Sequence to fold (341 residues):
Amino acid sequence: MSRGEEEFELEFNNNLTQFHNFHKSAIYKAIKSHNHTAVLEAIKTGEDVNKKDEEFNQGFIHLITFEADQTNEHDFVPMVYQLADAGIDLSLKDYKGQTALRFSIEKLLLELMIALLRCGASPVDDNYKAIIEDSTGPFQIEILHWFMKFHPGLWESVSRNNGTLVASLIQSWCKIETSQNDETLINLAKRKSIKASKFDIVTISAKVVKTLEKNVHSNCFIHATLAGDVDKMYALLMDQSLDLDSITKDISYQSQWNKPVKPQSLYEAARDLGHSQDVLDILPKPEQTIMCDDEYNKNEQLVQSDEHNNECNNEYNDIIPRRRLSEGESSNAESRMCTFL
Fold:
C-alpha cells in the first residue's frame, strides 16, 4: 500500500469513527428519544455538545429541528436551552450552509424558533425574513410576528448601541452570556463604550454595559430554569445571592400572536414547559414576581417596546395567511433537509 493510500485510509477511518461517535452519543440518542431530561443528564457527564456528523456537518441543534414537528416541538424546547447553556454553536451551518434557525422557520416550528432566537441564534445572518414571507400556510403571519419581536437580536442590538432595544430584549429573556469569535457580549458592549467615549457619546454605551452587568446573573438563572437544570439553579442562588423576587417577567409573552401582551412569570413559563416540581418549588409564585431591574425607566421601556412591536406589525400587515401546506408540499419542504440516519 502506497503512502497516499495509507493516508487516505487513515483519514477515512477517522471520519468513520467521528460519524459513529456522533450517532452513538448519549445526546444523540436522547434527542432521538424526545427526552429532554436525558439530554441534560448526558450534558452533565461532560459529553461534547459540539459533536457533529462529519459527512453533512450537522450537529445536535440541527437534529432537534429534524426530529420536531408542529405536534411535538414542545418536547424539544428545553433541549435548546440546555445545549445553549452548555456552549453549543447555534450558528453551525450544514454542508448546504443552512442553520437550525432556518430549518425551524421552514418547518414553521414557532416554539423552537423563539428558543433559538432567545439563546442567541442570529436573525440577521441570513435572509430569514424573506424566507418567512415566501412561505405559505396559516402560521406564516404568526412566525413573522414573533421573528420580528426578537429581531435583530441582542448581540446586534448591543453592536448598534441601541440601549432601548437591549433592555427590551433582556426583558424578553434573551441570553446575555453568549459569545462570538471568542468575545463575550459584555466585552462587546465595553468595547463599544470605549469607542463611544472618544466621541463624547458615552451615556447610552455606559448604560448598555451597566444593564447587561446588572442583569447577567438573573438572566443566567432564567435560562437555567428554562433548561430545567435544578443543580445550576441552586448553584446560582448560592453563589450569586439572587433575589428571586427581582427575577424578570417575559414582556414579550402573548397567549396568541394577535392577543395583547401579558408578561409571563418564570414560574408560569417553567410550568408550561413541563418542568418537574423540583424546578417549580424553587420559583416564586406569579403574584410574587416583578419586573427586572435595569437602568432605564420601566414604564418607558414597555411603551417603547410596544412601539417597536407596532413598527414590526406594519411590516407584515399586508401578509395574509393563504392556505395550509398540502401533503406534497410539506414532503417537498422536508426533503430539502438532510436528515440523520
About this structure: The first strand starts at residue 52 and ends at 53. Confidence is low (pLDDT under 50) at residues 8-13, 15-19, 288-305, 310-341.
